[in-house]
Amino acid sequence: MAEAIIMPRQGQSVETCIFSEWFKKKGDKVTKGELLFSYETDKAEFEQEALADGILLETFVKEGDEVPVLQTIGVIGQEGESVEEFRPGGQAETRKGEVEAVQEEPAKEEPAQPSAAAGQEKEFSASPRAKKLAGKHKISLEGISGSGPYGRIIEADVKKLIETKPKITPLARAIAEKDHIEIPSKGTGFGGRILASDVKIAPSVALANDYEDVKLSNIRKIIARNMYESLANTAQLTLHSSAGARKLQEYRKILKKKAAEGYPYNITINDMVCYAAIRALLQHPGMNAHFQGESIRRFSNVHLGIAVDTKRGLVVPTIKNANHLTIEGLSAQIKELAAMAQSGGIDPELLQGATFTITNLGAYGVEMFTPVLNPPQVGILGVNTITYQPGEIEGGAFGFIPRIGLSLTFDHRAIDGAPAAAFLKEVANQIENLTLNL
């Protein structure tokens, strides 16, 4: 009996997925448990195994299609069986047992592409067929703008490059190599052949084409929409302050020494700031809250969102019940979730439920910025770089004191400026009087 192939659901908030690739062709034999297709959400990449034996009778989606979850994307069965009842738009309702089977069968996460280290070849996001075709024709994938999901290079992109790649005369190539001139993409010779004269005028021609239109990835579109809706639908106000960072620096020196002696935790200044902010949130529950229009939901536990910069864009995983963690446990969870987010294989459920968010741009030397709220959260704390500012030191003398910048954005619909400022002051107090049991 023919069985539907269903687009899996990855997390309750995921409504559509981007189909990446079929590993089998129509008419191929399929064995239960072998890889059948791959797909992506806006946060992660997955590979799906076949759930039944048979023949791949029909496929209804292709590479790059955006497909609703739980929709039929193909059919497995025996040769000669009809697939008409399964076609999207005219098929029968998916049987409950089939949907549950797909949901219960975990998808395999596609391993993350490692970043290229110095002196190593750069990794590109490309389908296996695209890589195979490029290798056959000795074509570098560097610089190719892919038309697949998130700019992924697909086979059609490589074919297009092969068809349009112009031939270059030996003299033109020699001039380009001698004078270190980039060879133009199109020449004036027969069939677009690149001549010596084309290479000589290439620099002046390049001035007229000094821009590139880059198509937005799916996740960039989502981030853009969320940022716009956040600013359009909330009353955001940002307060800027700073806290003495001498204690943070002293603890950091102690921790580096302990690490050299075998201490297993790499506790950073950001970890310590998060630990201090959690303590402040427990004293100011009005900031650890969601604005719900007609009510404000205050939480007794702190579910801390940590903004992480990834190759796909900004991702905010959540550390649940962060107020129950030691500084070591908090540090470990921050690093674990950040690594999962950067790999693209994080569970969508871990990207939900935060009651307050912290974002850190201190590593970039930023001294002050305006974080954007993640509704329905009431607040988000921006952490800036440490600067040295004049101030009074011991004995009434004046000197330069290390201070870490803090930028608090809050929803003025849910909380007024004075209590928000009191919370920011308490964050600074917790930082300056931080006590760690190391």
Fold and architecture overview:
The structure is a single chain. This protein has three domains: 3-109, RNA polymerase II/Efflux pump adaptor protein, barrel-sandwich hybrid domain (OB fold (Dihydrolipoamide Acetyltransferase, E2P), Beta Barrel), CATH 2.40.50.100; 128-209, no CATH class; 218-432, Chloramphenicol Acetyltransferase, CATH 3.30.559.10. It has helices at 96-104, 128-136, 155-164, 170-178, 196-200, 202-206, 218-233, 246-260, 269-283, 327-343, 417-432; strands at 3-6, 16-22, 29-30, 35-40, 45-49, 54-59, 66-68, 72-77, 108-109, 236-244, 289-291, 296-298, 304-306, 308-310, 313-315, 318-319, 356-360, 379-392, 398-411. With 438 residues, the chain is an alpha+beta fold. The protein has eleven helices and 19 strands. A hairpin with a 5-residue loop joins β18 and β19. A six-stranded mixed beta sheet has the order 10-19-18-17-13-16, with helices on one face. A five-stranded antiparallel beta sheet has the order 7-2-4-5-9, with no helix packed on it. The protein is 29% helix and 23% strand.
> In terms of structural class, how would the helical and strand content be classed?
alpha+beta
C-alpha Rg, in Å?
28 Å
- Based on DSSP secondary structure assignment, what is the total number of beta strands? 19
Output the strand order for the largest sheet.
10-19-18-17-13-16
**SSE string, helix = H, strand = E?**
EEEEEEEEHEHHHHHHEHHEEEEEEHEEEH
CATH fold title of the largest domain: Chloramphenicol Acetyltransferase
CATH architecture of the largest domain: 2-Layer Sandwich
Q: Assess the beta-strand content as a share of residues.
A: 15-25%
Into how many domains do the coordinates divide?
3
**Measured distance between first and last alpha carbons:** 63 Å
- Individual helix count: 11
CATH superfamily of the largest domain: Chloramphenicol acetyltransferase-like domain
Helix % is 25-40%
CATH domain class name of the largest domain: Alpha Beta
Describe the biggest sheet? 6 strands, mixed
Mean pLDDT: 84
User: Are there runs of 5+ residues with pLDDT below 50, and where?
Assistant: 91-123
**Coarse shape:** globular
